[in-house]
Design goal:
By secondary structure, this protein is of the alpha/beta class. The chain has twelve helices and ten strands. It has helices spanning about 5-15, 25-40, 45-55, 55-65, 80-95, 115-125, 145-150, 155-160, 165-170, 185, 220-230, 270-280, and strands at about 100-105, 135-140, 155, 170-175, 180, 190-195, 205-210, 235-240, 255, 265. The strands form two sheets. Strands 6-2-1-7-8-10-9 form a seven-stranded mixed sheet, sandwiched between helices. Strands 3-5-4 form a three-stranded antiparallel sheet. Helix 2 crosses helix 4 (about 55-65) and helix 5 (about 80-95) crosses helix 6. It is globular, with a radius of gyration of 21 Å. The two termini are about 40 Å apart. Bound molecules: S-adenosylmethionine (SAM).
Length: about 290
């Protein structure tokens, strides 16, 4: 791959998906795009880039999707789901007892293991939520992963990663070598294609936002902008959950980390007071990372 082709792809991926590739990631691009070029009947990356420059929209979408990392599994990292069961829901359920409704967003939901893990947690929470309007909104850039998520069908390998056996037996039906989630759990999740780089204010406010293992691929300025916009999507007493390798610390003061629960963030009350006093919408602030 020529340096010019690499620079063209780098710029396009940054604009389309936020993916921030460093100058030395040619091998990654080649390993993902050479097979795609072959499937499209093209000679290699040079030809692929030429077609993209000529405006082959479907091919551009395929390239962007091929470069995203869709790795996910049920109850990933376990602790966030323990926090959901043991801390967040026990506080949120009494606080929402008048409204009897909960809205949760899985903001980079990939093939569905995250939103369905949330749905199973809510079902396991028991009768305290019976009769409530539960909305779990699963969004992703990639239409392909959303289609798989909607079907709720997983391989033996996928259900063996992170899913407790009791939940497999309780919520899935086996068909040959595949397992499908039951209609009740699937029905709790609504799917929607959404690029986090674009306006998402139309989704409305959420009680909990899971935005895990996607911001790590973005550069600092993009993270700052997304944290700022996420902060407007959360109810005042809501919770943001990030992935194990992600944090707001040193990036944004729109949220503050929970003092004792790793990966959990609340809206920064100091920020709300400051912006109310100023009577204007808050501006993103760069914070120097603590060492
Ligand atoms: C590594 S997966 C994380 C899945 C899940 N949140 C988890 O932690 O297991 C990252 C997902 O982010 C999606 N993604 C990448 N860039 C995106 C963007 N700009 N907007 C929305 N989703 C994006 C990818 O398609 C992929 O499915």
């Amino acid at each position: 791959m020529t340096l010019l082709d690499y620079e063209y792809l780098r710029k396009l991926l940054k604009e389309r998906s936020g993916l921030d590739l460093s100058a030395d990631k040619q091998y990654l691009v080649e390993s993902r795009l050479i097979p795609l070029a072959r499937r499209a009947g093209l000679g290699g990356i040079a030809e692929l880039v030429q077609k993209m420059k000529n405006g082959a929209d479907a091919l551009i979408t395929d390239v962007v999707e091929a470069m995203t990392t869709n790795e996910t599994f049920f109850f990933r990292d376990k602790i966030p789901f323990d926090h959901l069961r043991d801390t967040i829901l026990p506080q949120l359920v009494p606080a929402r007892s008048n409204r009897r409704a909960l809205r949760i967003w899985s903001a980079a939901s990939s093939t569905g293991q995250e939103p369905y893990s949330i749905a199973m947690c809510l079902r396991e929470f028991g009768p305290a939520l019976s009769g409530w309007r539960i909305e779990i909104v699963a969004t992703d850039l990639s239409q392909e992963v959303l289609e798989k998520s909607k079907a709720g069908i997983y391989s033996q390998f996928e259900v063996q990663r992170g899913l407790p056996i009791q939940m497999l037996v309780k919520y899935f039906k086996q068909t040959g070598e595949l397992w499908q989630l039951n209609a009740d759990i699937r029905g709790m999740v609504q799917h929607k294609q959404l690029n986090l780089l674009h306006d998402f204010s139309g989704l409305g406010k959420f009680d909990i936002i899971f935005c895990r293992n996607v911001l790590i691929y973005f550069d600092q300025d993009t993270k700052i902008r997304i944290f700022e916009r996420l902060s407007k999507m959360l109810e005042a007493d809501g919770t943001l959950m990030l992935g194990a390798a992600e944090t707001v610390v040193g990036i944004s003061d729109a949220f503050r980390p929970s003092p004792d629960k790793r990966g959990l963030y609340q809206l920064n009350p100091a920020r709300a007071v400051r912006s109310n006093a100023a009577g204007a919408s808050p501006q993103p602030l760069r914070v120097v990372a603590a060492r």
